[in-house]
Amino acid sequence: MAQIIDDLNWRYATKTFDPEKKVSKEDLEILLEALRLTPSSFGLQPWGFVVVETQEILDQLVPVSWNQQQVAQASQTFVLCRKESVDEAYVDSYIADLCQKRGMKVEDMSGFSQVIKNFLSKYSEESLINWMSDQIYIALGQLITVAATMKIDACPMEGFDSDAYDKILGLKEKGLRSVVVCPVGYRASDDKYATLTKIRWELDDVVVRI
Amino acid sequence: MAQIIDDLNWRYATKTFDPEKKVSKEDLEILLEALRLTPSSFGLQPWGFVVVETQEILDQLVPVSWNQQQVAQASQTFVLCRKESVDEAYVDSYIADLCQKRGMKVEDMSGFSQVIKNFLSKYSEESLINWMSDQIYIALGQLITVAATMKIDACPMEGFDSDAYDKILGLKEKGLRSVVVCPVGYRASDDKYATLTKIRWELDDVVVRI
Q1: Residue B168 forms contact with A (CB below 8 Å)
Q2: Over B126-176, what HEC string results?
Q3: Are B108 and B95 contacting, i.e. CB atoms less than 8 angstroms apart?
Q4: How far is B141 from chain A (nearest CA, A)?
Q5: For position B188, which CATH number holds?
Q6: Domain for residue B177, yes or no?
Q7: Which of A41, A196, A207 minimises the CB distance to B102?
Q8: What gap in Å lies between CA A37 and CA A146, rounded to an integer?
Q9: Is the ipTM of this complex over 0.90?
Q10: Which of B55, B146, B153, B203 to mutate to test the interface with A (most CBs of A within 10 A)?
């Protein structure tokens, strides 16, 4: 059908990584750049991307990840985070960055700035957290897809203790909170999950054409 | 750096599509297959993907999309939906599909089935909706990235009236609820947004290396 579909069929949630095979520095920078370029609502980028490769820290993450060993076996483990909060000062910093990069005056963007602030002010704190999480999941989708095109394995994971991650990684001090985890690397040759039939509904079961 | 990064830099939230340029049938099937292959928590795929190309319907969507014309100008508009609910019967149907495709007995997967059911039962209805939305945003990230590799333009949109979409598209009857919208097609030659500098925080502002 297309190379990209082959890539997406090739990928799977890797349960056992080969601890000897490391993602190269160059490839790691490509994955990070792909995360950086993720689109977000209003362009607000309410996120931080933590990449852990210190073995001692990775080992500490396993018991707070339902004992899933892939967190420590992987070449790197990505922790995709939301900001602790997105307030008016943050919107101002975003608008300032936008104006600086596009050679505009902040006053010229006051309308757009107010639209965003009005939008955010309508949300409860909980709704804002959910809205930020949505944006982080766009980044996860982009990461998984880009990794697949590079034949880099990944294992997106919701099964972890977010508070424990935040503590071990010192995220609160950085104004971040962990949302979703994704070890990356290369599958072990004996990972039995690699050859299992992929389970997806048929196209007609999930697609509606109008 | 890499072709995939060029592709991600090439893409932008397209505000004006060329209404004469249509995504080919072959390419549309690739985008749909990419959506179908999206990974999800437990593999549950709590989604439906609506692709609208009937002009009369697209025109009806504009006024309930903050009058954003790209919804009707695009070649197709994707409406990424969550299921209305994910209950035990749905988990059973997923486990049955898994067992049928992998030649296993449903009894052999009763443990996994129970893990999923326990997981879902801990959630409030609102939390379940948020959890489903997260999965739909993975699909959005995958769609945007795949489209970019195919030089197909897209405009992910949260600015629409979800209830009105559900009504116009008859989604409730299909057990679906709209989560996020994404027109796809080809940028108009005069879309001034195409040449604006992309606004993203610098790598050091969003990446933490541990």
Answers
A1: no
A2: HHHHHHHHHHHHHHHHHHHHHHHHCCCEECCECCCCHHHHHHHCCCHHHCE
A3: no
A4: 4
A5: 3.40.109.10
A6: yes
A7: A196
A8: 12
A9: yes
A10: B146
Residue A200, domain member (yes or no): no
Please tell me which residue of chain B has the smallest CA distance to A193: B102
Instruction: Residue window 102-131, chain A: list those with CB within 8 Å of chain B.
Output: 102, 130
Q: Tell if the pTM clears 0.90, that is, is over it.
A: yes
Instruction: Give domain status of residue B91, yes or no.
Output: no
Q: From CA A139, how far away is CA B201, in angstroms rounded?
A: 14
A107-149 residue pLDDT tens = 999 999 999 999 999 999 999 999 999 999 999 999 999 999 9
In-domain check, residue A201: no
- Alpha-carbon gap, residue A112 to A109, rounded angstroms: 5
Domain count, chain B: 1
pLDDT at B43 over 80: yes
CB pairs under 8 A between A and B: 202
CA distances from A11 to A58, A120, A158, A171 (A): 23, 37, 18, 30
For B50, the enclosing helix (H) or strand (E) is: strand B47-52
* Strands A47-52 and A76-83, sheet pairing: antiparallel
Is B101 within 8 Å of chain A by CB?
yes
B142 neighbors B34 (Cβ within 8 angstroms): yes
| DSSP H/E element including A47 | strand A47-52
Measured in degrees and rounded to the nearest 5, phi and psi for residue B15 equal -95, -30
Structure tokens at B153: 């333009």
Residues A177 and A74: beta-carbon distance below 8 Å = no
Taking only the tens place, the pLDDT of each residue in B181-199 is 999 999 999 999 999 999 9
Identity (one letter) of the amino acid at B98? L
| Measured distance CA(A162)–CA(A180) in Å, rounded | 8
Question: In angstroms, rounded to a whole number, what is the distance separating the alpha carbons of residues B133 and A140?
Answer: 13
Which residues lie closer than 8 Å to A48 by C-beta, 6 or more apart?
A: A81, A82, A83, A171, A174, A175, A176, B206, B207, B208
Beta carbons within 8 Å of B205's beta carbon, 6+ residues apart? none
Which structural domain range is residue A116 located in? 3-194
In b/e form, how buried is each residue of B56-65, taking b as 16+ CB within 10 angstroms? Answer: eebebbbebb
pLDDT at A1: 66
Is B47 in contact with B80 (CB distance < 8 Å)?
Answer: yes
Q: Is A150 on the interface with B (CB under 8 A)?
A: yes
Cβ–Cβ below 8 Å for A48 and B135: no
